[in-house]
Amino acid sequence: MLIQRQRQSIFVVGGGGGTYTIGVSEPTSTIDPETVSASGAMLIVGLASEGLISQDSKGTLEPRLASSWAASSDGLTWTITLRDGLKFSNGDPLGAADVVATFNSITGPDSQSAGASSFEGF
């Protein structure tokens, strides 16, 4: 995927051909999924990344990178199974260790992630 900025527009060109164009203001923060805070940067991150699970308009959980998930009987442990064949945009395989490293980075003592507070107490 190629992302180019020209004036106030973002052009995203994927491997399937064609161009998707949206207008977005210059991001006022970094475009780092872990530390993003500005709405323009959040939009770009949302277009270029994928979560494990998302919600549809009715609040129903839908699989994204995860193919399934289940809580333990006490609700303290979640087992998430990743889809087969996941890859980063550069073609490197994406596995469970990458997901764990991301969570550790978000929740670590030196984290600057806005999402860190969502995991307090875990």
Anisotropy-based shape: globular
Total number of strands: 7
> What is the subunit organization of this protein?
single chain
Return the structural class: alpha+beta
Taken in chain order, the helices and strands follow as: EEEHEEEEH
What is the strand arrangement across the widest sheet?
Answer: 1-2-3
Mean pLDDT: 80
Rg: 17 Å
Largest sheet, strands/sense/barrel:
3 strands, antiparallel
Distance between the termini: 35 Å
Low-confidence stretches: 1-13
Helix content: 10-25%
How many H/I helices? 2
- Work out the strand percent: 25-35%
Please render the helix and strand layout as text.
Layout: E1 2-6, E2 9-13, E3 20-23, H1 39-48, E4 53-55, E5 61-63, E6 66-71, E7 78-82, H2 96-107
Antiparallel strand pairs: 1-2, 2-3, 4-5, 6-7
Describe this structure in words.
With 122 residues, this protein is of the alpha+beta class. Helix content is 18%, strand content 25%. It has two helices and seven strands. It has helices at residues 39-48, 96-107; strands at residues 2-6, 9-13, 20-23, 53-55, 61-63, 66-71, 78-82. The chain has a three-stranded antiparallel sheet, with no helix packed on it. Strands 4-5 form a two-stranded antiparallel ribbon. The chain has a two-stranded antiparallel sheet with strand order 6-7. Mean pLDDT is 80; it is low at 1-13.
Keywords, please?
single chain; about 120 residues; alpha+beta; 3-stranded antiparallel sheet; two-stranded antiparallel ribbon; 2 helices; about 20% helix; about 25% strand
